[in-house]
Design a protein that fits this description.
Elements: H1 4-21, H2 42-51, H3 57-64, H4 74-82, H5 86-100, E1 110-121, E2 131-132, E3 142-152, E4 157-165, H6 171-181, E5 190-194, H7 201-209, E6 213-218, E7 241-250, H8 253-258, E8 265-267, E9 285-295, E10 301-306, H9 315-324, H10 326-338, H11 349-370, E11 387-389, H12 391-403, H13 413-419, E12 421-423
Parallel strand pairs: 1-5, 5-6, 7-8
Antiparallel strand pairs: 1-3, 2-3, 3-4, 6-10, 7-9, 9-10, 11-12
Helix pairs in contact: 1-2, 1-5, 2-11, 5-11, 11-12
Length: 448
């Protein structure tokens, strides 16, 4: 039996226990909170929140304490979690991830994706920063937070996350922060992939300054608001192209007027963000990017801005890299519906944030263990189709394993994951995205 799952579980518990030794650092009332020993101290409160599923607080506590009639009440649990700062869950997520996240390289490069997702929780109009008023009279509004995440496509885990108020979300600013937080010893072999929501020279300049590689999808140059509209003079007269663009970015119009060559300077207005060159600066910023326009199967065109060398990456390689970014979208679905980041146990925004970081930790716990499973071990399912790990089932197996009492025999978690496979549909399927609103999971209707 593979002992790696037990090692990962022990590591997570050890980090929580180490935090409990200095609980005052993570307490809302240092010197008063968690000063006495009890059945629901700092470590058990943290563990309980991480291991919670979709039941009510009473049901979750009943299972966690193995149906002990002398176990703490739900009210006691709420009082205990009130005394824990959000920073405790943020630290646990980062520290646990750092223990097992070692960037794996695909063709010599580590590939990250950045994106955001809406997290809807129980309606509470009192939280004005998160509340969205209904469009029609008589309809209900809703509350939501915006989760911005950095996701490692190769290893399948989250490496950073930032939560913003739903009505004041700023994905670009969040990505700026996550780029600053990301510590890599080899930036030139780290590729960041982002979609059109991040289109800006400001972010391009930031990634260039950090010496990171990137692939950014932008609006087509035929769209007025595209950042490519000021670069069209360098594009060839054809529908598909792959060209390098070089410009000196300036905040001064006089330099452009004095220039005899319109392809030398790129003017960025003072009111536009471009942190690499402040508005009052008279300096020049050298911009060297690659612009690739590719025709898609539906007849439309995709424009990608990158700094990947043409000698190593073809236009098709860039298309495949951007297509791989979709894995973060899939991970959000797993995070919400396989790991359970839809079943919150409070309408208080601080408690919801606690549970978001708890679920991110649980997701990575499942991902690290699942990465040790092998599809080839299940010989019965290796003839007619290609198979892959069923992460939805793997996450549930890892969740149950994390909740198990120490007194119970340890199951072969890896073998159970390898037993639950699904067909690997490798063809490039295309589906229309039918966007619809998704309400919060009510406290009155929980899973059985």
């Amino acid at each position: 039996m593979n002992n790696f799952p037990s090692e990962v579980k022990q590591t997570l518990n050890n980090i929580i226990n180490d935090m409990a030794e200095v609980a005052w650092l993570y307490s809302t009332k240092p010197g008063h909170s968690f000063t006495r020993s009890g059945k629901l101290g700092f470590a058990k409160t943290m563990s309980l929140i991480i291991s919670m599923e979709g039941g009510t607080i009473g049901e979750e506590m009943m299972e966690y304490f193995n149906y002990d009639l002398n176990s703490p009440t739900p009210s006691a649990f709420v009082q205990q979690r009130t005394m824990i700062k959000l920073e405790a869950f943020q630290y646990l997520f980062k520290e646990f991830t750092s223990r097992y996240h070692t960037p794996k390289y695909k063709d010599g490069y580590s590939i990250l994706a950045a994106d955001g997702t809406k997290v809807v929780y129980a309606t509470n109009p009192a939280n004005v920063d998160d509340y969205v008023k209904p469009d029609k009279e008589g309809d209900r509004g809703y509350n939501h937070l915006h989760l911005n995440a950095f996701y490692d496509i190769v290893t399948g885990c989250y490496v950073d996350a930032i939560i913003q108020p739903g009505s004041r979300q700023d994905e670009r600013e969040a990505l700026h922060t996550m780029i600053d937080n990301y510590d890599t010893s080899d930036p030139l072999h780290t590729i960041i992939t982002v979609d059109r929501g991040y289109e800006s020279f400001d972010l391009i300049g930031h990634m260039l300054d950090k010496e990171l590689r990137f692939v950014m999808r932008v609006k087509d140059y035929t769209v007025y608001s595209s950042l490519l509209t000021n670069l069209t003079s360098s594009f060839p007269d054809c529908d598909e192209f792959d060209v390098n663009i070089k410009r000196f970015v300036t905040r001064s119009r006089s330099k452009i007027k004095q220039s005899l060559d319109p392809d030398v300077y790129l003017y960025i207005k003072p009111q536009k963000n471009f942190r690499s060159l402040p508005p009052e600066s008279d300096d020049l910023y050298y911009l060297n990017i690659r612009v690739t326009r590719i025709k898609l199967s539906d007849g439309s065109y995709e424009c990608l801005v990158s700094n990947l060398p043409m000698s190593e990456f073809t236009a098709k390689d860039l298309k495949d890299l951007y297509h791989a970014r979709w894995n973060i979208e899939t991970s959000f679905r797993y995070l919400k519906y396989a790991v359970g980041m839809t079943n919150f146990h409070s309408r208080k925004v601080e408690f919801v944030k606690q549970e978001i970081f708890a679920k991110l930790t649980l997701f990575n716990f499942s991902a690290f263990i699942t990465n040790h499973a092998s599809v080839t071990k299940n010989s019965k399912k290796s003839k007619k189709h290609d198979y892959k790990i069923n992460f939805s089932m793997a996450a549930k197996i890892c969740h149950k394993f994390l909740k198990m009492a120490k007194s119970l025999p340890i199951p072969d978690v890896i073998a159970w994951i390898e037993r639950n496979l699904r067909v690997d549909k490798t063809d490039e399927r295309h589906f229309i995205r039918n966007l619809r609103g998704i309400g919060a999971c009510s406290f009155l209707y929980r899973v059985a």
